[in-house]
Design a protein that fits this description.
Number of strands: 0
Number of helices: 5
Oligomer: single chain
Number of domains: 1
Length: about 90
């Protein structure tokens, strides 16, 4: 992490306001961008959504939960959660 002297970065008026609350303290100022949802950057979110839809379709075609668990390498409990998920 890079540290910068606030007097080199902040306008004088803002620096004086910050000094009222945290003079001499080390502060972390986070960047303003919003966090991405889990898996949206790597494509994992889309992959699992598609896989779960395929599991639900197979279940609707009367495949048993045990068969689905074997086919997708998941536990029966995981298949049950996916199938009954709203």
């Amino acid at each position: 992490m890079n540290y910068k002297n606030a007097s080199h970065v902040l306008p004088d008026e803002l620096l004086k306001e910050v000094q009222k609350y945290a003079a001499g303290e080390t502060l972390y100022i986070p960047i303003m961008e919003e966090k991405q949802k889990w898996g949206s950057g790597s494509g994992a979110r889309a992959y699992y959504r598609q896989r779960n839809e395929a599991i639900r379709r197979d279940y609707e075609k009367h495949k048993s939960m045990e068969e689905l668990a074997d086919d997708y390498g998941l536990t029966v409990e995981s298949i049950r959660k996916i199938v009954y998920q709203k």
